[in-house]
Design goal:
Elements (H helix, E strand, L loop, with lengths): L5 E7 L8 H11 L5 E6 L2 E4 L3 H5 L8 E7 L3 H13 L6
Antiparallel strand pairs: 1-4, 2-3, 2-4
Length: 93
């Protein structure tokens, strides 16, 4: 990951169905556009933000707070894009 830049932000899952497969795939697609490593934390669980199966294991329902963490030279841009995606409700609002 190289630069050692670490950025974290907390965001609340707004969409009615929470993190189900379609929003997870959108999240993974955005995460993969960046070089930064992405970790998502939720209620004591954590997942690789590039792994759909790990993301499913978070079981993040509507209203759940998740922490998005990125590490790498483009960490800020990565976190900003992912938080914006979550806040948009994945197009489901």
């Amino acid at each position: 990951m190289g630069s050692g830049v670490v950025v974290e932000r907390e965001v609340t899952i707004p969409n009615k169905e929470g993190l189900h497969f379609r929003p997870i795939m959108q999240f993974v697609d955005v995460a993969q556009r960046f070089r930064a490593g992405v970790t998502v934390m939720c209620e004591g669980r954590q997942a690789d933000g590039r792994s759909p199966m790990e993301m499913l294991m978070l079981v993040a329902t509507q209203g759940t707070k998740v922490r998005v963490r990125a590490e790498g030279a483009d960490a800020q841009q990565c976190v900003d894009a992912l938080v914006e995606l979550v806040q948009s409700g994945f197009g489901e609002l």
